[in-house]
Amino acid sequence: MAAHLGCHNIADLRKKARRRLPLGVWEYLERGVEDELGLARNRAAFDALTVRPRVLRGVDKIDTACEILGISAPLPLAIAPTGAAGMMWHEGDLALARAAAEAGVPFTISSASTMDIEQIATAGGRRWFQLYLWENRALSHAVMDRAASMGCDTLMVTLDLPVPPNREYILRNGFATPFKLNPRNIADVLLHPRWLTGVMGRYALSGGIPTQANLPDQLRAKVTQGAMPGAFFKQDDLDWAGVSELRRRWPGKFILKGVLHPDDARRALDTGADGVVVSNHGGRALDCSIASIDALPAIVAAVGNRSAVILDSGVRRGSDIAKALALGADFVMVGRAPLYGLSAFGQAGVERALEILRTELVRTMAMMGARSIGELRQSLS
Ligand code: FNR
Q1: Is 182 inside any structural domain?
Q2: CB within 8 Å of 207: residues ≥ 6 apart
Q3: Which residue's CA is the closest to the ligand 1 atom numbered 10?
Q4: Residue 3 belongs to a domain
């Protein structure tokens, strides 16, 4: 049982994270792109969805067990890939992975993680690897080989950032690269002494600010000296043939992240994908993108009986998970929710975030009259 930590919901963890982090790191965690309409749209779409509960179903035992890409899991949830977790907590990737392992849910290692695959793998548990491609594809293939040899059973290729996203706040905060100290961020860092000592101080003692750990040696640069996570990646020329090649190279499960159109979902299956992640990158890619939960039903109708359909972007409550599954998703991924917990309390905070989502899901299922994930799925369609 995760410690309570004085947080009743994900919003409580978010508040504590906000207080702990300097503005530059906080905004990297929290913000969307441009006018942040996509970010708001994800939430508005979830909020607008309602359910028609059933009564007298005998809901004294609620079972959230399910299958996630062929393997049983206690909860229909995986942790989404997020770069720069090491700036939110000392060795943040490891804390996320350990909490996921503890909860029995998959953890996705980001291509832009601040610890390398080998270090994160020491957490145990089920791990996946998320791929962004470098221009020199051979370097990416080498990272894929490392991920496979470190026991990642699933490759998730992210498709929704063909070009870098427009994150204007990063430039303003001076957390862009090369890292520039300016009066605003010096004062801000000094005003967050717990972060300064607990995160930066510990790195200073153990060999320096984290690098983008999965970068091949040829491209390696410190986060403070090189590009922000993701900036070195270049996949604007990636096409379906390129995805087929990745499929052929990868021995395990293969899923495509950032699919919002049913025709692309069909094409993904033709290419041999085992599933698609219906995602708009948490409102961090294209600001005018459809909300993922709004895109879900058409994709479920197109490919739901032949492949895994995963909903990602905007999940903050267990009831959001219930809504996504009721619309036909197999499971959801969460990005910011665990990062709030991580930034506030490290591994214990991630465990708390997962526990909050689990208990909220159980309560929602009981209220809806759905005793199992099977009963919940498609109950809205
Ligand atoms: C992300 N996301 C992301 N996605 C990805 O494929 N590779 C990555 O390296 C990252 N990095 C990243 C960093 C941070 C700080 C955030 C918040 C998100 C997107 C992530 O995987 C997921 O799609 C969204 O976070 C889902 O939306 P919610 O749950 O944050 O609303």
Answers
A1: no
A2: none
A3: 82
A4: no
